[in-house]
Amino acid sequence: xxxxxxxxxxxxxxxxxxxxxxxxxxxxxxxxxxxxxxxxxxxxxxxxxxxxxxxxxxxxxxxxxxxxxxxxxxxxxxxxxxxxxxxxxxxxxxxxxxxxxxxxxxxxxxxxxxxxxxxxxxxxxxxxxxxxxxxxxxxxxxxxxxxxxxxxxxxxxxxxxxxxxxxxxxxxxxxxxxxxxxxxxxxxxxxxxxxxxxxxxxxxxxxxxxxxxxxxxxxxxxxxxxxxxxxxxxxxxxxxxxxxxxxxxxxxxxxxxxxxxxxxxxxxxxxxxxxxxxxxxxxxxxxxxxxxxxxxxxxxxxxxxxxxxxxxxxxxxxxxxxxxxxxxxxxxxxxxxxxxxxxxxxxxxxxxxxxxxxxxxxxxxxxxxxxxxxxxxxxxxxxxxxxxxxxxxxxxxxxxxxxxxxxxxxxxxxxxxxxxxxxxxxxxxxxxxxxxxxxx
Amino acid sequence: xxxxxxxxxxxxxxxxxxxxxxxxxxxxxxxxxxxxxxxxxxxxxxxxxxxxxxxxxxxxxxxxxxxxxxxxxxxxxxxxxxxxxxxxxxxxxxxxxxxxxxxxxxxxxxxxxxxxxxxxxxxxxxxxxxxxxxxxxxxxxxxxxxxxxxxxxxxxxxxxxxxxxxxxxxxxxxxxxxxxxxxxxxxxxxxxxxxxxxxxxxxxxxxxxxxxxxxxxxxxxxxxxxxxxxxxxxxxxxxxxxxxxxxxxxxxxxxxxxxxxxxxxxxxxxxxxxxxxxxxxxxxxxxxxxxxxxxxxxxxxxxxxxxxxxxxxxxxxxxxxxxxxxxxxxxxxxxxxxxxxxxx
Lengths: 440, 344
Description:
The complex is a heterodimer.
Chain A: H1 3-42, H2 45-78, H3 81-115, H4 117-151, E1 156-158, E2 164-166, H5 169-173, H6 176-207, H7 211-246, H8 248-254, E3 261-262, E4 266-273, E5 278-285, H9 288-294, E6 300-301, H10 316-345, H11 353-361, H12 365-381, E7 384-386, E8 390-391, H13 402-433
Helix pairs in contact in A: 1-2, 1-4, 1-6, 1-12, 1-13, 2-3, 2-13, 3-4, 4-6, 6-7, 6-11, 6-12, 7-8, 7-10, 10-12
Chain B: H1 2-34, H2 38-48, H3 52-69, H4 71-80, H5 82-101, H6 110-138, H7 169-191, H8 194-225, H9 227-235, H10 241-255, H11 260-282, E1 285-287, E2 296-297, H12 305-332
Antiparallel strand pairs in B: 1-2
Helix pairs in contact in B: 1-2, 1-3, 1-6, 1-7, 1-11, 3-4, 5-6, 6-7, 7-8, 7-11, 8-9, 9-11, 10-11
């Protein structure tokens, strides 16, 4: 394999594995605040012990997010040095802001959330939970602002020697792309956290143990999952419009629309065949893509034929499948969330075994949907590293040979396999131990 | 001018990182020796438990600051030091999970395993960070694209081919290990009681002696490999104050035997004095070239001045807030570690 492919795989592997953990912690951070707030308002110790239980899971997950996050910052320099040399003066700002404004906040108050309940008092401990929530959501914003600049660069100018210069940090932080992407990403994280909570709650109810906690987790999880799934559809629509407007080749590739047409159909099923420039075995909704994109059934949607081949995303099938998996799973989340909410409202959810089984088995799917969503965003940006400014092929470190990149890629694969096994083992122990009482 | 300011701010951030995470790393180095039983080891871990992660954030924040203020330095050094940095990342990962996972299971197999990982990764990180500093002080063979790629080690001949680990960088790594061993022992002594406290105090004295000897030796070597140091001292004699701070810190460690807090603070001054001396000796270079190669300097590696000015507007309040958090957190967990069993 050539060095460029290895550098891309290196980043893809480490980023994908890393993002398992922040999406859980960002989602749970909000739900822990909900639990702590309910504990304050009702005085019911059930919510306090529930919050402690989720804070323990949060703590293990957060630790893995931290240790797998450090390599992300380093890799911009180690594996993508020519990109960093060109763009560091711009995106280094938002990355450094993340460190200064959110990591300090998170790390300070997480210690207090985990170890300081006796020292802080009830209000103080609630504030610690809010601070951890704020820190983790701020962190998400700065990372999204960085990625959004690569997707839709603003606030910079090009210097006399072609170098990229920062012009306005305010433009970076108010990038329209950043706000839609942030909104969509954060509701995605809430979906993960909410289904995790509902899933564990359903597990307790189906196991006939910790039923009071199980009902609370299912109730809060299902409500949050339904609300977040609705918002995911709305924010995804907003983000899709930006893609249509600013990355039309990406939109065409996501839908495997090889020919420009009016009244473009939306593909539900089918396999893209880039060689023959068509969608094999298609099942489509006529006109739907035109309507979804431009709100007119007859609107023209640009196909890949309008773009030179060297500006097509370089892996159209993977991009297409990622996008469709994300949308498909998002639709399922909405359906499950709606059904479970109705049953909850009618007071039947806790006794409905089939639905509890469904909720329990939902556990891995939000992780898959979030991963597929990020794959869509990052593959869709190809062949650009900074859209319209720098190609991915021009950004990798030339002085790091393919052998060295392969060496560290294999090292990370081994280490991350170990981390994944340890994580599942420790989380399983927490779940098995349950939310009642304290333990070492 | 603003480039120099960012150089000073960055050096200060790295110094804060070394002083804060330095005692975490040093606590890891003394962990197996100062604490023997599970309860004793919980004392060591409780002394850093609530703060180590925040301390490590100084490394991440400094990395981000390096990235936007000196993108060329970030790109050249991180890609050129590819292999050792990957190992540093793996060690940071192992060390972090060792601290976080150890107390989850009470088992005669689980806890000693993570104790060894914690101690081993902490020790290796101290040596690697020192060797990294040695590489930056000595310089690297930059090419005309400002790139380089160094082998992990060479033949260790003085004055011979440069490598990540060579005759100059290994002594710097050992000095760093000794200095952080001292720093960590003093921290554990300050925060604990009973046998752990006594053993940490017993480790601190030989560590201080070794650090003093290595400090003298590495100073001589550094004058030999980096002529900029003597030139800067000749041009700006006030710079001699910085190594004097380091020497004063060492003297404080030696004399203030009865004052645990004063001893630990002396060690902070020692580390701060050493690092600021290194920064002073390096300036205006940030990554010197060897073998006739042009150096990366504060001026040619910095981002354009407009971006650097923008950076000041958010960096200063952000770091002030971070310092306030640190005071708050250290205040909340001040004093001796009382209950070795964390209430999680």
